[in-house]
Every structure is written in structure tokens, then in C-alpha cells.
Amino acid sequence: MWALLLVPVSVLLNPTPAPGVQVFSAATAARMRHMLEMATSTEGTAPAARIPGYRVAGKTGTARKLRDGHYVDAYVSSFVGFAPVSAPRIVVAVMIDEPRAGRFYGGDVAAPVFGQIAAGTLSTLQVPSDAAPQQLARAGGN
Fold it and tell me: 110: which of 48, 86, 94, 131 fits an S-S bond (Cβ 3.0–4.6 Å)?
């Protein structure tokens, strides 16, 4: 099991990374990963973020914009996700400012962009698949 660690950020190459501070227990981190993975299931808010052969997880966002102290019919749509769930290698954040074509929910607009970027990145990095065999069979049948 993994615990979530808060590690100081540095722009310098450091041969010995700074020690992290545990902010969540391993059990809490596992529960959060599971909940975030559910968002990308067929019943979740972001099935368009799915990548054949990989388990992905993330969170959608849709924010109405404020102009001159009033909410307007303009949005910022987002999806922040990571993959593969079993051993995360990448985190991708996608924000779309004022999406058009009548769609503005993060799961409809930003999640597919995440899927394309993450799929290409996982392929480039040659990250092995972590999908269960039955998931791979379903992905091949679509």
C-alpha cells in the first residue's frame, strides 16, 4: 500500500531527494484512488478519459465564469487525472477556457483531451498496461 507524501519542490537536480511528510494514511490514499478511478468508469462523469489497456483516474470540473460581479454563460472546463492507477507515472491537467459547440462539462470537453494526451505520453514512455485481462478484451471489442 502507498501513503501520500508531501515532498518539497525543487528546480535543482538533487542527488538525494528531500524527505516527504506523510499527509494521508495508505488506506485513505487507496480509497481516494478508487473513488477517482470510478469517475472514469462508464457510470462516472468522465468515461471519455479512458485509455484502452490502462486504468486511469481523475476529477472533472466545470466552473461558471464571473464577470463584473455577475455569473455569465461562460465556463472553464477541466479534468485532472493520473495513470496508470496501479503505479502512477503521469499526471495531466487539462483546462479549457470557454468551450464552445454547446458542451461545457469537464467530462465532455476536457476528459477526452486528457485521454489523448495521456495515451500518447504512456506510449512514448513505454509504460506497461495495468488493465485486467477482461478490460483488455472489452477494449479490443469496441
Answer: 94
